[in-house]
Fold this sequence. Notes:
Blueprint: E1 2-5, E2 28-30, E3 39-41, E4 49-51, E5 66-71, E6 81-82, H1 87-91, H2 96-103, E7 111-117, E8 123-126, E9 132-134, H3 142-152, E10 160-162, E11 169-174, E12 180-186, E13 191-192, H4 199-202, E14 208-212, H5 218-232, E15 237-241, E16 261-264, H6 271-282, E17 286-289, H7 295-306, E18 310-316, H8 320-324, E19 336-340, H9 343-349, E20 354-358, E21 366-372, E22 375-380, H10 381-389, E23 395-401, E24 407-414
Parallel strand pairs: 1-4, 14-18, 14-21, 15-16, 15-17, 17-18
Antiparallel strand pairs: 1-3, 2-5, 5-24, 6-13, 7-8, 7-12, 8-9, 10-11, 11-12, 19-20, 21-22, 22-23, 23-24
Amino acid sequence: xxxxxxxxxxxxxxxxxxxxxxxxxxxxxxxxxxxxxxxxxxxxxxxxxxxxxxxxxxxxxxxxxxxxxxxxxxxxxxxxxxxxxxxxxxxxxxxxxxxxxxxxxxxxxxxxxxxxxxxxxxxxxxxxxxxxxxxxxxxxxxxxxxxxxxxxxxxxxxxxxxxxxxxxxxxxxxxxxxxxxxxxxxxxxxxxxxxxxxxxxxxxxxxxxxxxxxxxxxxxxxxxxxxxxxxxxxxxxxxxxxxxxxxxxxxxxxxxxxxxxxxxxxxxxxxxxxxxxxxxxxxxxxxxxxxxxxxxxxxxxxxxxxxxxxxxxxxxxxxxxxxxxxxxxxxxxxxxxxxxxxxxxxxxxxxxxxxxxxxxxxxxxxxxxxxxxxxxxxxxxxxxxxxxxxxxxxxxxxxxxxxxxxxxxxxxxxxx
Length: 416
């Protein structure tokens, strides 16, 4: 199938002509016609042509609401799927009775983490409606924690460890004396299908910042993006992997990242140095990094953006407002400064004499709020920050999946 989007009369295309990922072939796009950039996908399997709109309007403030429904054919755009996640390796560190319970669990595919806290009942946390469930009616003992710790091996300075060849992560809770008194055993899965939510944005070649609460799936998304950029768009991709969450534990990266290269970070406090090293030593076209959180890391992001390298990153925060009001992270989206207006200018603007403005151009062209796994809010960063600082609600795109795994895009609406 070929998907062709009509070209704008006033601007040349910024999109790549390379084909979409194989699991997106056969997508049928339904849309109204408007003023959009050129966008084309060619499939070798069909000559059908469908016309639809591209991603962002030239002048969105004057446009009305539009929507796109991406529907799957019998051979493409499958619902979210994941490869063998090696979950048995994670179960091996658990007490025998808990291992047997989880191996027979019908909701095993929805398992998110297993929690073992000394003197408390062991619990399993699931996605969806299952929530947290108690696995047995006896408490966790010292002996069980010691068994798990011996099976895991050494924890890093950040109290995290992994299992070689997998994406699973084990985090420790320690007493004041340094003894392990609790474990959070988090299941890591290489899930495919998220890329269809943002595949069109990758063709812009602009940096993307993903934000969302812990556990919502940010790392899973950027892991799949790294594979698509390296294997399907043939970019030179370097992953800065601080906790081995993106590429998995061990010196050989997990197959989920494809041909992307990985730089491991030996301790979290030097992540910003490894980011700079990636640019200076390995000539990347794209750098992917998880959990930007310190001033040094923010400065590294801004430096990378000025060098013309595409950056895909994540940060904690549920909505754009959280990043704008965070004194450390705000510089990634342009920063905020206070400006004093003259009396005449303030009257023309019908505003106070002291207002807030964006200080610089954002390091990230797009900011995506992952509200839920299947509900995303997409911002054009500079535009949304300016509207927010002026007291208006940003115009955004709402991207969501329906019950049939179709991707629905509602563009240029306000989102509270």
